[in-house]
Amino acid sequence: MAPSLEAPEPVEDVLANPLKQKPQLVAPEPEHCPGPESEQAGTADSCAGCPNQKICAAAPKGPDPDLPLITARLAGVKHKILVLSGKGGVGKSTVTCQLARAFATNPDITVGVMDTDICGPSIPKMLGVESETIHVSSAGWSPAWAMDNLAVMSIQFMLPNRDDAIIWRGPKKNGLIKQFLKDVEWGDLDFLLVDTPPGTSDEHLSVNTYLKESGIEGAVIVTTPQEVSLLDVRKEIDFCRKAGIKVLGLVENMSLFVCPKCTHVSEIFRATTGGGRALAQEMDIPFLGAIPLDPRIGMSCDYGESFFDSFPDSPACKALKGVVRDLAARIGLDPKDVMPDE
Question: Region Disordered: what ranges (predicted)?
Answer without folding.
Answer: 1-44
